[in-house]
Amino acid sequence: MLKRLIDYNDGEELDLVVYIKNSQLRHTKNNKLYLALTFADGSGDIRGNYWDADQRDADSFSSGTIVELNGKREEYQGRPQIKIYSLRVVGPDEGYDLNQFVKSAPEKVDDMKEEINNYVFKILNPTWNRIVRYLLEKWGKRFYDYPAGKSNHHAVRGGLAYHTLSMLRDADGISRNYPQVNQSLLFAGCILHDMGKVLELSGPAATQYTAEGNLIGHLVLIDEQIMMAAQKLHLDLESEDLLLLRHMVLSHHGKFEYGSPKLPGLLEAELLHRIDDLDATVYAVTNALQHTKPGNFTEPLMSQDGKRFYRPKVDEALDNSRKLE
Amino acid sequence: MLKRLIDYNDGEELDLVVYIKNSQLRHTKNNKLYLALTFADGSGDIRGNYWDADQRDADSFSSGTIVELNGKREEYQGRPQIKIYSLRVVGPDEGYDLNQFVKSAPEKVDDMKEEINNYVFKILNPTWNRIVRYLLEKWGKRFYDYPAGKSNHHAVRGGLAYHTLSMLRDADGISRNYPQVNQSLLFAGCILHDMGKVLELSGPAATQYTAEGNLIGHLVLIDEQIMMAAQKLHLDLESEDLLLLRHMVLSHHGKFEYGSPKLPGLLEAELLHRIDDLDATVYAVTNALQHTKPGNFTEPLMSQDGKRFYRPKVDEALDNSRKLE
Amino acid sequence: MLKRLIDYNDGEELDLVVYIKNSQLRHTKNNKLYLALTFADGSGDIRGNYWDADQRDADSFSSGTIVELNGKREEYQGRPQIKIYSLRVVGPDEGYDLNQFVKSAPEKVDDMKEEINNYVFKILNPTWNRIVRYLLEKWGKRFYDYPAGKSNHHAVRGGLAYHTLSMLRDADGISRNYPQVNQSLLFAGCILHDMGKVLELSGPAATQYTAEGNLIGHLVLIDEQIMMAAQKLHLDLESEDLLLLRHMVLSHHGKFEYGSPKLPGLLEAELLHRIDDLDATVYAVTNALQHTKPGNFTEPLMSQDGKRFYRPKVDEALDNSRKLE
Amino acid sequence: MLKRLIDYNDGEELDLVVYIKNSQLRHTKNNKLYLALTFADGSGDIRGNYWDADQRDADSFSSGTIVELNGKREEYQGRPQIKIYSLRVVGPDEGYDLNQFVKSAPEKVDDMKEEINNYVFKILNPTWNRIVRYLLEKWGKRFYDYPAGKSNHHAVRGGLAYHTLSMLRDADGISRNYPQVNQSLLFAGCILHDMGKVLELSGPAATQYTAEGNLIGHLVLIDEQIMMAAQKLHLDLESEDLLLLRHMVLSHHGKFEYGSPKLPGLLEAELLHRIDDLDATVYAVTNALQHTKPGNFTEPLMSQDGKRFYRPKVDEALDNSRKLE
Amino acid sequence: MLKRLIDYNDGEELDLVVYIKNSQLRHTKNNKLYLALTFADGSGDIRGNYWDADQRDADSFSSGTIVELNGKREEYQGRPQIKIYSLRVVGPDEGYDLNQFVKSAPEKVDDMKEEINNYVFKILNPTWNRIVRYLLEKWGKRFYDYPAGKSNHHAVRGGLAYHTLSMLRDADGISRNYPQVNQSLLFAGCILHDMGKVLELSGPAATQYTAEGNLIGHLVLIDEQIMMAAQKLHLDLESEDLLLLRHMVLSHHGKFEYGSPKLPGLLEAELLHRIDDLDATVYAVTNALQHTKPGNFTEPLMSQDGKRFYRPKVDEALDNSRKLE
Amino acid sequence: MLKRLIDYNDGEELDLVVYIKNSQLRHTKNNKLYLALTFADGSGDIRGNYWDADQRDADSFSSGTIVELNGKREEYQGRPQIKIYSLRVVGPDEGYDLNQFVKSAPEKVDDMKEEINNYVFKILNPTWNRIVRYLLEKWGKRFYDYPAGKSNHHAVRGGLAYHTLSMLRDADGISRNYPQVNQSLLFAGCILHDMGKVLELSGPAATQYTAEGNLIGHLVLIDEQIMMAAQKLHLDLESEDLLLLRHMVLSHHGKFEYGSPKLPGLLEAELLHRIDDLDATVYAVTNALQHTKPGNFTEPLMSQDGKRFYRPKVDEALDNSRKLE
Lengths: 325, 325, 325, 325, 325, 325
Fold this sequence. Notes:
Six copies of one chain form a homohexamer. Chain A has 325 residues and is α+β, with helices and mostly antiparallel strands. Chain A has three domains: 5-100, CATH 2.40.50.140; 104-284, Hypothetical protein af1432, CATH 1.10.3210; 291-324, no CATH class. Chain A has eleven helices and seven strands. In chain A, a hairpin with a 2-residue loop joins strand 4 and strand 5 (79-89). Chains C and F meet through helix 4, helix 10 and helix 11 of C and helix 4, helix 10 and helix 11 of F.
């Protein structure tokens, strides 16, 4: 079997095909340029500096590029890194693609598609149903491919759809406990709430924030998409149905400080925000617990206001659960 | 049919049996004492001042007392009040009891008991199961009778059990979506989390905070009960099972500023807090929307950080839902 | 000369044509409906309750309606109010219009138009120039008619344009001090930043927040308008020019808690926010000082974090300045 | 005289008996395990990594273990560390014990006991007196041995008792200035307030937070002890005396964000909180000033909200005071 | 014995000499002027409106004026007020002075002077000693006459000196427990810390904030006084002694949000702040408890972050303590 | 041409005259002393440690000293540093002075003086005019020499005057847009607001906070100077003019948390604060953008609440602007 990044020890030389997870052109203090790179291949990741770089190198070795890495593994300041001997871009005809290097969500794309489509059927309001279908059609390829974020939660290939589906399952149970909830609106909100991330993020692997992502954000990006879809579909631009749906996506971060321009002002918007937060939290805490030994606490989780979580000495439910990342 | 409080108009005189929902002995600026009273009979409530009161009157006409009220309805500063002619304590042998004046939760006590007991069966861990049974036994009478609070949510007779049951239903669905969750611990936490309110509050009707409630609080009060139960049941006082259960109740307010001495440090504790908050929010928002006309916003809801919620012009789910209060 | 609202004393009866500045259908505690009205005629305003109202009355006597008011002026709880004898909607053919009742900004609309158009000429970038012209064309009538808000600042007819113009003047001087500023972008941002208020607010007089205003907000409303304009004008929807302009309007509140989905991320966006805030502050503080006696402090100004401002005993600049409201 | 940790220079080899102050099993990025150790012997401390460790090593070389350390002192990243040649657990029969390695509070245990017992005599209320005596009896051995914390203040052997005693002295003076204060309650509160730390911390040397400490906290831990003591002593579990004492310990952190489930609601509880804070602050600031040169500022003190303190050029009082750590 | 304000009942007419505790010229909504007055005579206070006032009336009937009040006591909106028939300024030769109407601190001025002077003797540093003596000389008359504030604590005649003295007593005990404290600096800080209030407040009775108080504040006002004193006394303006003393007064509010331009950066400054806060808190809580019945809670105390305090059913220390206000 | 600090590469030895920008005596963990130095010569700066230092070395090689540095450039932890061979203080007679090593503001001192003096002419109020002239006279040498801070903005020689002048230009335009503003007061406030920095900072190069700076702060330091100037000039110490000017400087940080003992309470004080903040922000953002490549974001700017700013791909205004640092 092929040796992977994780299999090398200090001092060993390596020559293998990996992808560049992160690439930044930096200055040393004395104004020489170098590329600070992170390599990954699905088994783990490791850093390395490419010295005396120029802008052309930065363009060649950008995030997401597949490269042949020749170098030596070293320990530096207690952390492993690669001393780079040479770096070569792997051509499209050499038979590699990013998929083989990137972790994927724990459910199959086709299964997720089918289950999500079943939820679309339950959106009974024609305005919401048509917009959801239109945007799933327009952005579906990315939607089932992208992660839900850079690092906090669901940062895996297909993570965006997986997060959406898990929320729909929660929404299903909750809306049955509370019959006063408009289930169609809640389902439509779940499906669209993070779809703007197909514009906010750069792609399924080695994802970065785009300029649109940084300057507009996925809440407003999907709102703009809804309005343009409505125009294309010749829907009434001033209908209350359209207004409610826009409010769902614009308020789903729940607090101003998380970038919602409006706070939830519908019972369904409040629920959408809470289900989103709950699903992200369960993912992040579970992931951290799976990397913690029984009887110990996780590191402080930044996504959870710095809280630390305890993994009980005996916890069969967690022991038997599927590994996330 | 008998006329009730709500049926009287300005200027009408009334003579009917009601109960005192709230009673406070106050000074006027020139140091005369009077009782500021709120009367209620299940149809609504109305205020009235009992002038030239003394401590003995305050003791006779305390919160929760059933009285015969003779007076006249007036409008004062835009709000109705009763000009009191006379007030008489109704004796225990006159055939009245508080039950007939107080609103109750929308499900029957016997039904709730049966469903909650079914959840107790699903608590598989013997330590948690025995403590839950012991405390349900010890405090059950009050548990199925008390409200969940003074005013924010579930402030109705049986509201404590109703809130608990609704949370168990949410917990059921959520723990099925996330198999890594220890369902037994989550169910035990749901049942016990607010049980300390049987000590924090004064009773099912016209409820007030007790001194224990104000100085200790229901989180620590139930924690003390758990420890004393464990001692009585000769359980291992240093077992991790006992530790986890205590942490569930002590952390369930989720934030220091809401009186949790510890933040949730278990996945199940985090979920308990969120389910508690979600159920309380759905209740409060629904209740407010039911008192709002379609196409309008509720008043700012203090329990929801001052947010206002919109009742859509068309909203069948809400229209068809059961009226809460 | 005709007597106006401000000219009546306690106990005097009046019969005059005014407009309804604010109208709210409310319940008394015993569930009777009434309309809480505020009447105004440009000389001042006064409240009055219309008892035993129904929904039809609420529709007839909505905010912005011109009415013939017959009643008596009374003092109630230290504040004057009208005891209403009768109320009649004035028909469109009776020769009244709202203009004569509402205060206007201190500069003439035609002068403001000319000066603003001069600034449009200075927007050299074709994308920004075309969008600004298109939206001024589409919404210009409202833009020169609406106030900039309900109460905090520039709450006068034409206040929106007046506030915009005053900002452009500040932006002019500031961009000359700092040549690194892109003046075209700053001017375009000034003109568009609050234009979404033509959708957020209900009109020039007796203005209210619309449902769109409450659920979407003027920042996102104008962003949607920019995108739809770009589509109509066949501009490149993915150009950086379009991105920068959208960011200007989306970030201009400067802080998340004021509803900006993004914080200013351009030097020009930072300046736009600060000029907006500065102009609003100068207006609000000046207005308060003009109502304060020399040697005294204003009331705490809610729009200024509760700060109070001192009017010096000698202050010729203020004495000579134009009265705002 | 024996050479101690502090006496070695870079490059020198050493072989001496020390104790492990802190031990953590960590992964390198490539998933190899090592122990990150801190060694100490009362003269100072120094770090060192034990490579290629396994769980058994982690158990052998846990915090608080006395070991024979053979290695070489090196400078790494500007900080000294030990390159470990070998590490051996020192057996109980080799004549060492932790006491000789750990700094102690600046007063003798017997003196502190006598003075604290004198304060117990002044607790006149029988409920408080009996509970204080009972718990001092039950936990006294640890109480006079443990530190008051891991690092912030009084982190020395016997620091818990020393902090308690210093607070009693402050409480004595303050309660004489304010005769309205219930001195018995304040003294009882001082003695019990931090006693839960005998359960929250792992021991006198190389102390760590226990799972109980992290999940329950010393405020609730001592509250539980009070309730169980009351039960054992057959005191009235519902008496106001018991309620007041529980409130004292539960509220003594003074703010929700510091883990108090209730804010001080008694004059004596407010004072307890302030005296606790004052004594801890004086200790931490004095300790920092003693490590600062005259005419300079301390580093920002995290325990004091990041404030820095100035040591005057001339300050005889400080010069003459006893060195703390 | 003479009847005082508190002795009158609703409907009774009165004609007695009182002083104006507070006077504000206000507009009714229809722009008529009136004076909102509060009358007091040491037995209590009561409000009344003087209608149709003009600026001359406002000048005549300003805060602190002694008047003959002729009117009738009425109940208005649940609070008593005076319907004023006539109001006459009492001349200086009619034998009244404010002293007889204003409550005083519970210790005699001469006793306080003597005890404070004894503390001055203990200030051993000549710079601090001379400045303290100079400023006590310059402002002593006001210092022993003024209150320490408008309402929060020590709002009685002589309250400023009483608060200072009580702090000195605390400082005495605390500095004996911690020998590292520079007692001279702490005593000097106690005496000067609030002395700027002789400029910030308008006088011993019916005290108001002066313009200096509102725009500069007592921390900086006393700092300016110290600098000017140093100049007059020909002290070294750049000495560290002078610097330390200025820092003491400038930082004594302890937090930026309370108007300290610098946070405490000396051990003694930290203690000064805490002793100040402690003494003010004990006063405010005691005062509130003395107005609360045993077994009840005080109202929320705004000066204590809204906390409420419980008065135990049995509390001899409080029962026997001197009544404050 | 002479080689400067920036011209050396890793491994090269150097022997050149530079100045010490920052010097700190530190302990290694094993209590050996060393000097952590930063060297600079206007081309850039670089760090180096001087081992085995003592207090005498710390005095010789303090911040601001010109030295002959002999050593070797090395890369350490990704950052360049100097391995020091020897260090020698350059005597005053060797022909060097700090000026040649320190960056200066982008306008000439003489030009700035002339323009600032023109603004002084426009201060029409004699009190303000005389105080401004007096203090410019007294502190002018430093005022035109010092930076405006250590690092955030205008941290260059003459930066204090340059920042002041830039604010005056803004103030000029703004006061023309708002005639209600007292221009004299605003100009006087601009000139004096930061003049206390001549006491708060240690000098034009390698500037540090003085003890006065840390314990009093430049707001109060200039306030004290104003009072002492007024005394020297025999102005009325209680005049309102003097009061207004003191308030301007004391409130100009605008918020308590930035060390203003009072919030702005004059329209002109509010404007002064905003113009100060605006000018500092424009400087800091421009400076950061000038170090950022087109199409990228700056690092998070700590002085701007961590915001990051985008440099558009096309931005002629910025491209053509003068380089700041």
